[in-house]
Amino acid sequence: MAEATEQKNKPMIWKELVLGFAVVESCIYHSIRTIPIVTASNAEEVLFTDNLTRLTKLESDETVKGVLPVPFPTYEVTGAMPTEGEEFSEVILLGYEYPGMEAPDWMEILKREVENPRRCV
User: Fold this and answer.
1) What's the superkingdom here (predicted)?
2) Which of 46, 53, 114, 115 is the most buried if burial means most Cβ atoms within 10 Å?
3) Confidence category of residue 98, pLDDT binned at 50, 70, 90
4) Partners of 107 in the beta sheet?
């Protein structure tokens, strides 16, 4: 039981395989944005993440214009820092890993993001 508590209070980092980026156009805002298309690591994750619903949460004025390929393997890196008394922690997008790049210290980036109250949410 102590192990579960110890694990629960530790910062966590996740890496999800990115298959590409969907290019989405907004008619109201006259803008284009990209949405990562990521895989779920397991069947349980499909039920509890936005992985499969990112593209279905488009605004009514948005359309998918295309898909940008990414080199294999590309990963989206997210993390969470447990908060005392909270059942769920905020999941923060930390960045992306591409083949041939040296991965930064994701734990340091997570700590810096959590301590920065001015970051985008």
Assistant:
1) Archaea
2) 114
3) very high
4) none
Enter the tokens of residue 59.
């605004």
Percent of the chain surpassing pLDDT 70 = 74
Q: Which domain holds residue 97?
A: 2-115
79 three-class SS? strand
Q: How many domains does the chain have?
A: 1
Distance CA(19)–CA(73), nearest Å, equals 8
**pTM for this entry:** 0.72
**Nearest of 70, 57, 66 to residue 25 by alpha carbon:** 66
118 vs 121: CA distance, rounded Å: 9
Non-local CB neighbours of 20 within 8 Å, separated by 6+ positions: 36, 37, 67, 68, 69, 70
Q: What is the DSSP letter of 50?
A: S
